[in-house]
Amino acid sequence: MSGFGPGDPFLADCPARLTVELIADKWTVVVLSALSRGPVRHGELIELIGGISRKVLTQTLRRLEAHGLIRRHAYAEVPPRVEYELTPLGATLADPIHTLTEWARANGDAVLDALDAGPEPVAPGD
Fold first, then answer.
1. Helices in the chain by DSSP H: which ranges?
2. Across-strand partners of 82?
3. What is the pTM of this model?
4. Residue 1 — very low, low, confident or very high, per pLDDT cuts 50/70/90?
5. What confidence tier does 3 reach under pLDDT thresholds 50, 70, 90?
6. Does 121 sit behind a cis peptide bond, omega within 30 degrees of 0 on the bond before it?
7. 78-94: pLDDT as tens digits
8. Which of 6, 51, 83, 91 could tie 39 with a disulfide, CB 3.0–4.6 Å?
9. Among 40, 25, 51, 30, which residue's Cα sits nearest to residue 101?
10. Is 123 left (phi over 0), alpha (psi -120 to 50) or beta?
11. Using CB atoms within 10 A of its CB, is residue 90 exposed (0-12), middle (13-18) or buried (19+)?
């Protein structure tokens, strides 16, 4: 028995689950965190984040924009300038992301130690 019932936020078709899946993407939290400091250009995001390709960053930005978490602003200038910023909805994630980041800082070594230690032996019958 799964423990999930009607109206549970983690059922397959529930908006809460779909939102968690969006946020759980490898780069989403990193991009949202970078944008929480204010508007940023694509190239600046590449430098801030590190380790993300231009293609993956573009895909992530488009997905976040489609879901209403960020806004893309193209300026009518030569050369063209585009900035990305959090929408009011996206800004509501700043505090939870900060909390998650602080947890990761405080517990990162313990997580790596557990990984290095390997899995605990399973007792017969478990």
1. 15-23, 28-35, 42-49, 54-66, 88-91, 94-117
2. 74
3. 0.79
4. very low
5. low
6. no
7. 888 999 999 999 999 99
8. 83
9. 30
10. beta
11. buried
